[in-house]
């Protein structure tokens, strides 16, 4: 069976990385979390004195840094210049700044090249905001995963609570709203549903339900390509 290239985009907390990882595992494909790459750049910028909006200074940081995505005991670990930052990049501090860094053309160009190289061999599930529209416009299957903002904020809140990070649900919902707005309104590669993407609303759908829906679409698609 031909190895597909699958693009999953959508707003924060829609379930993209959870669902994409399971789909990739079931199909024995490679999962690529592009949000983790933007978060890694943001973390590196936050370690310096550089302002997140200073494109020239951020460009220097991006050019000098090495981002690693590796699987260790079945879990994806993210490194920046060899330092494991898997946990740090998920902290609310990083979430608050990431959209500002991700809107810079210099950052997007660097990530686009890396992400396209990673998908060259096929058999890939890549998730993010601009995968179906910019990174992999010829993907075999494009999914736009979404859910109501209330549901997405609740999911993120539960996830943070399990890690012992306490935040107000209301603040989290506002942060997600602001980030979705910034991601959707930026000039370069904004978050938008690709014309040929299939919309999957997971507000009322379990993780298994979303995974099964995507696996069914993969099966259909692999018969037709
Ligand atoms: O997990 P969550 O949905 O909260 O975010 P993420 O997928 O880790 O992405 C973090 C941020 O990176 C997004 O809010 C975007 O600003 C940026 N991003 C992007 O611009 N393009 C992508 N392909 C992936 C993420
Ligand atoms: O990657 P994205 O930001 O789109 O979302 P995620 O990090 O995969 O999912 C956010 C949280 O929602 C995780 O804790 C998932 O377990 C949960 N989730 C859920 O409860 N129901 C779904 N249908 C999908 C995800």
TrEMBL record:
Primary location recorded for the protein, binned into one broad class: cytoplasm
Catalytic activity: CMP + ATP = CDP + ADP; dCMP + ATP = dCDP + ADP
Entries under Pfam families matching the protein: Cytidylate_kin
Gene3D superfamilies given in the database record: P-loop containing nucleotide triphosphate hydrolases
CC terms in the record's Gene Ontology section: cytosol
Keyword Kinase among UniProt keywords: yes
Single GO molecular function: CMP kinase activity
Biological processes, Gene Ontology terms: nucleobase-containing small molecule interconversion; pyrimidine nucleotide metabolic process
InterPro entries, A to Z: Cytidylate_kin (IPR003136), Cytidylate_kinase_dom (IPR011994), P-loop_NTPase (IPR027417)
Location in the cell: Cytoplasm
Residues noted as binding ATP in the record, renumbered to the chain: 10-18
Superkingdom classification of source: Bacteria
Entry's EC annotation: 2.7.4.25
Keyword line: ATP-binding, Cytoplasm, Kinase, Nucleotide-binding, Transferase
Protein's UniProt keywords contain NADP: no
Sequence ranges assigned to domain Cytidylate kinase in this UniProt record: 6-219
Listed NCBIfam families: cmk (TIGR00017)
Family designation: Belongs to the cytidylate kinase family. Type 1 subfamily.
Matching HAMAP family: Cytidyl_kinase_type1
Protein's name according to its UniProt entry: Cytidylate kinase
UniProt gene name: cmk
